[in-house]
Amino acid sequence: MHKTIQTRLQEIAQQQEVKIIHAVESGSRAWGFPSTDSDYDVRFIYAHRPEWYLSIDMENRRDVIEYPVDDDDLDITGWDLRKALMLLYKSNPPLLEWFSSPIVYANDPATFGPLLTLAPDFFSPSSCMHHYRRIAEQQYTGYAKGGKRKLKQYFYALRCALAYHWIDQGRGIVPMPFADLVAGVVASPEMQQQIWDLVEVKRTSRESDSSPHMAEMEGYLEAMMDEMETVHLTVTHSGGTVDTLNDYFRASLGTLW
Fold this sequence. Notes:
This protein has a 5-stranded mixed beta sheet. It starts with a helix and ends with a helix. The model has no long low-confidence stretch (mean pLDDT about 95). It has helices at about 1-15, 30, 80-90, 95-100, 110-120, 125-145, 150-170, 180-185, 190-205, 215-230, 240-255, and strands at about 20-25, 40-45, 65, 75-80, 105. The relative contact order is 0.16. It contains 11 helices and 5 strands. It is of the alpha+beta class. A hairpin with a 6-residue loop joins strand 3 and strand 4. It is globular.
């Protein structure tokens, strides 16, 4: 499938007349807990020719390339470089995670290398913690109060809760691999083993399957959720500047084209 995705990305770049800077797997396959029927969530950053950005109708131009899930279970979405940089300025957590995905389909080192170097300067712990707490609450509510307790929702809530605590412990940008989160945040070897046992259950299950009875693990997640609720977050901006991103943007267009 890796080669199929690379070929598809090359076709997209030719059809859309863009250069792909970085393309990765996101979602459960990159996190490390896919189900048997998980899609391939392909995400990429791309850039148009310089003249594309010099338009009086710039605000009307699409800055996203999207393809619906196809017969190969490929869910493909790309963000224009300008959009990606604006989101980086806001410390967008999904974008920051793309930078550490263990599954890379395409990469332009000359352009992506400097971007990777810049990323830590735009990391806002409070902004990212707010994001992960919100997603954890949404997923946990859907899991706990839904008629059918889906294993997928439990894992989504657990991952975001661990991501929140990863940042709260001063560990920096959240890594994409779930294994890194578990190793860094879950102190109990017994709980770590229970998590990995459940990961194996998910690997052999479908996305819509219900979770097994797991009172101890549900209690562990609920305790983390309760702890997060007691913290008041004041979102603050990172130290990175727009001028820095503008300089990178202009230099990258020159390098790519």
